[in-house]
Design goal:
The chain is built from 20 helices and 21 strands. By secondary structure, the protein is α+β, with helices and mostly antiparallel strands. The protein starts with a helix and ends with a helix. The radius of gyration is 28 Å and the shape is flat. Strand 6 and strand 7 form a beta hairpin. 40% of the residues lie in helices and 20% in strands.
C-alpha cells in the first residue's frame, strides 16, 4: 500500500508533469497520457506518444483531453483481467469509499484475456487481435478530473502487485517519446485495439443504469459455473482439451477417444455427476447446463488457462508426511553452475567486476534526483558484481502407472510434473511404467504443453515393472548429457514384473544398486504398507525414502521442493 503522504506527492508531480507534457512515465512500468501511445516491435523498451487523442480515437469524444490512457507494461503473458479488476475496485473503494462508484463506472480495462467496463460483465475484448495486442501490458482508460489524477498512484501500485502475484514480471519503460512523424504523417492503424464494449466512456453511453446488479441471476449463474469450470480443469484435463471434449458431444466413447484421453471415463463420470452431460444408451449428450458450460469455456478459455497455470504454480505444499530414515548416499559435487549477479559497491576484500548496467542505473537515479550533473558518473555510482553459484537440475520422475495408481494417485503425479515445470527453472522428464511397458520421453523439457500432451493419454493399468523402469532410467541417463540429475520414484506398490530372473523384487534391487555408482540423487516416495521393501531399495541405491499416508499433489510437491533445496 502506498502511504498517503507519498501518494499525494507523486500525484502532484503527475498533475504538474501532465500539464507540460503529452505523456509521462509513472514509476518504471507505466505510461499515462490523454494521447494514444504505442510500442514498436523493434523498440519494445520505448513508448511512443502519437498525435491522436485517446478519447476521440477510442470513444468518439468531441472534446480532447477528457480520457486518460494508462498502460502498465509487463512480461509477455496472460493477466487474468477479472482478478485484476477486483483489485482495482478494492483499491479505489478503499480510497474513495462511497464516491468511488462514479469513477469505477467510467473506467475500462483490457488485458490478454479480455476486458470491458470495470463494473460491467467483463465479457468483452475477446477479439484475438485485441488480446494479442495486450499480451505485454495492462490497459486502462478512465475519465478523470485533475483532482482525481493522484488516485492513479495507488491504482498502478495495485496493478503491479497483481501482475507479480499472477507470476509475471514488471517490464521497465526506458523511454517515452513524442512521435511527431505520426502526428503529421498518415494515421496509425489502431484496428487491432478496437472492439465492441460495454464502456460508459462513449458519448452515447454515459449512464450506469444498465449496469448488472449484484443480485442478477444470470451474473450469479455465470460466476458459479466459472468457479466450477476452474475446479473441473484442475481435476480433469487442460481447458483446451475439456473444450474439445465438450464440442464433440454427443458421442459414444471409442478407442480413439480413450487413446487421446487416458482418464476419459473419469472425466465423463465427473461431468455426469455435476449434471453437465447425460448418458442415453451408451451415448453421452450435453444438458442445458453443459451447453452453458461449453459456451463459457469457449468465451473465457485464456482466463481458464491462465488460472490453471497459477494454480499449478502456487498450490499449497504444507501437507504433513512421515519420513523414514533410510541410508543417505554420500553427495557427489557434480553440478552445473549458473551465475546470478549480486550487485554491490566496491569492496577491496571481495573484488568483483564492474557492472555497467547497475552503475549506469545508479548514476541515472542521481541525475533524475538532481544530485549530480547529467552524464557524470562518480565513484559512489560504481557498482560491482560477484557471481553467485546456483545448481541447475534435471529431474526425472519415475511414475508408477499400474492399475493400483488409477484415480487420484496418478492425477497427483500428473499434477506434480506440471507444477515442477512452472515452479522451477529445472528441466523435467517423466518416465512412466505399467504392465510390461516403460514409456520414455525423447528428452527433458520445461514446456508445460509437452508435459501435458505426454501425460494426457496416460491411463493406469496392469502390473508394476519397477525393475524395467530403473533400467530404462539408467539408459536414459546414459543417452543424455545430464548434470547431476534428481531421480524421483513415485509408487504405491512393490515390483510385480521380473526383468532377468523370476523374482521381480531381486531384479529391482539389482537395478537400484547400479544407481549407487552414478552421479545422481535418488529419492523414493511410497506408501506405508510397502515401507520394508522401499527401505531396502533405498539402501541399495544410496537414496532417500519418504513414506507418506497418501500420494497427494501437495505432499509430493512439498517433498520434491525439500529435496531441491537440500541438493542446491
Amino acid at each position: 500500500m502506498v502511504p498517503r503522504s507519498k501518494m499525494q506527492v507523486l500525484g502532484e508531480r503527475l498533475v504538474r508533469a501532465l500539464t507540460v507534457s503529452k505523456g509521462v512515465r509513472l514509476g518504471e512500468s507505466t505510461v499515462v497520457s490523454c494521447q494514444v501511445h504505442v510500442v514498436s516491435i523493434d523498440k519494445p523498451e520505448e513508448v511512443r506518444i502519437i498525435g491522436a487523442d485517446a478519447g476521440q480515437m477510442f470513444y468518439g469524444r468531441q472534446k480532447k483531453g477528457t480520457i486518460y490512457h494508462i498502460d502498465v507494461f509487463h512480461q509477455v503473458g496472460c493477466i487474468n483481467h477479472r482478478s485484476l479488476a477486483q483489485v482495482i475496485i478494492k483499491t479505489l473503494v478503499s480510497e474513495l469509499e462511497a464516491s468511488a462508484e462514479r469513477l469505477l463506472d467510467h473506467m475500462d480495462i483490457q488485458t490478454a484475456t479480455g476486458g470491458g467496463r470495470l463494473t460491467g460483465s467483463l465479457a468483452f475484448g475477446r477479439k484475438a487481435s485485441l488480446r494479442r495486442a495486450h499480451a505485454n501490458h495492462v490497459h486502462l482508460a478512465a475519465e478523470l478530473g485533475i483532482k482525481e489524477l493522484p488516485l492513479l498512484v495507488p491504482v498502478v501500485a495495485a496493478i503491479e502487485g497483481e501482475i507479480l502475484r499472477q507470476g509475471l514480471e514488471i517490464r521497465k519503460v526506458e523511454r517515452v517519446c513524442l512521435d511527431l512523424q505520426k502526428q503529421n504523417g498518415p494515421k496509425t492503424d489502431l484496428s487491432a485495439y478496437t472492439s465492441e464494449s460495454d464502456s460508459f466512456l462513449c458519448e452515447n453511453k454515459t449512464s450506469p443504469s444498465t449496469r448488472p446488479k449484484s443480485g442478477d441471476s444470470n451474473s450469479n449463474r455465470g460466476d458459479a459455473v466459472m468457479k466450477e469450470a476452474y475446479q473441473l480443469v484442475t481435476e480433469t484435463m487442460p481447458p483446451s482439451e475439456l473444450l474439445h471434449l465438450l464440442q464433440l458431444l454427443p458421442f459414444e466413447p471409442t478407442g480413439e477417444h480413450r487413446e487421446r484421453w487416458g482418464d476419459l471415463d473419469y472425466t465423463l463420470a465427473i461431468l455426469k455427476n455435476k449434471g453437465y452431460i447425460v448418458q442415453k444408451r451408451g451415448r453421452f449428450e450435453l444438458t442445458d447446463k453443459g451447453q452453458y458450460l461449453l459456451e463459457l469455456i469457449n468465451l473465457y478459455l485464456p482466463e481458464l488457462e491462465s488460472g490453471l497455470r497459477q494454480f499449478l504454480r502456487r498450490f499449497s505444499t504444507s501437507a504433513d508426511h512421515v519420513y523414514s530414515h533410510a541410508m543417505i548416499k554420500p553427495g557427489r559435487d557434480f553440478k552445473r553452475l549458473r551465475e546470478k549477479q549480486e550487485v554491490a559497491p566496491f569492496n577491496l576484500s571481495l573484488g568483483g567486476q564492474l557492472n555497467l548496467t547497475a552503475t549506469a542505473a545508479r548514476a541515472a537515479c542521481r541525475w533524475v534526483q538532481g544530485n549530480s550533473l547529467p552524464g557524470c558518473i562518480s565513484g559512489d555510482d560504481l557498482r560491482y558484481s560477484q557471481p553467485v553459484r546456483h545448481h541447475a537440475f534435471n529431474i526425472i520422475l519415475l511414475v508408477d502407472s499400474s492399475a493400483s495408481m488409477a484415480g487420484d494417485r496418478l492425477r497427483a503425479a500428473r499434477m506434480l510434473a506440471q507444477h515442477l515445470v512452472l515452479a522451477t527453472q529445472d528441466k523435467i522428464a517423466v518416465i512412466t511404467f505399467q504392465d510390461d511397458t516403460v514409456l520414455v520421453p525423447p528428452g527433458f523439457t520445461n514446456s508445460l504443453g509437452k508435459i501435458q500432451a505426454q501425460l494426457l493419454a496416460l491411463k493406469a493399468t496392469g502390473l508394476t515393472p519397477m525393475a524395467h523402469a530403473l533400467a530404462e532410467a539408467g539408459t536414459f541417463l546414459q543417452r543424455h548429457r545430464v548434470y547431476r540429475p534428481l531421480v524421483v520414484l513415485i509408487t504405491d506398490g512393490i515390483p510385480t514384473v521380473p526383468l532377468k530372473s523370476s523374482d521381480a523384487s531381486t531384479d529391482t534391487l539389482d537395478q537400484a544398486e547400479k544407481f549407487r555408482s552414478r552421479a545422481l540423487d535418488f529419492v523414493c516416495i511410497g506408501l506405508n504398507p510397502n515401507q520394508v521393501f522401499l527401505e531396502e531399495l533405498c539402501r541399495k541405491s544410496g537414496g532417500r525414502l519418504y513414506v507418506v499416508n497418501e500420494l497427494e499433489p501437495t505432499v509430493l510437491a512439498q517433498l520434491i521442493h525439500k529435496e531441491l533445496r537440500r541438493c542446491r
